Amino acid sequence: MFKYVLLFAFVVYVSAVGSSDDATAEVKSQHADVRPDGFDADLDTSNSIHVVSAGDAQGNIKGEFGWVSPEGTNVQLTYVADENGYQPKSDLLPTPPPTPEAIIKELEYLKSHPQKETKN
Known about the structure:
The protein is of the alpha+beta class. 26% of the residues lie in helices and 38% in strands. The longest helix has 15 residues, at 2-16.
């Protein structure tokens, strides 16, 4: 459980490092509730950093964090960390190019024409 609290603190620290306004930022509100069956935590700062996370006894965590970039863009990211790994979602994350139409057709063909098993 300590590693999740440490990860939370690291995310907040990295989010706070940046422009000169960040050096004078103050915590507006902070809450942390660590229980045997999980945790809930949130943080808001005067420089628009917002962090919310919750975890359960199995180590699954859901959360979100955001801040205003030096360019004035509102950055928001949500995530799930579970048995499938860390899964972030944000409009600002890069996305893969679309799958070519020929590949999609080939996959559909292979799905509709399964190979027959051969006996040796």
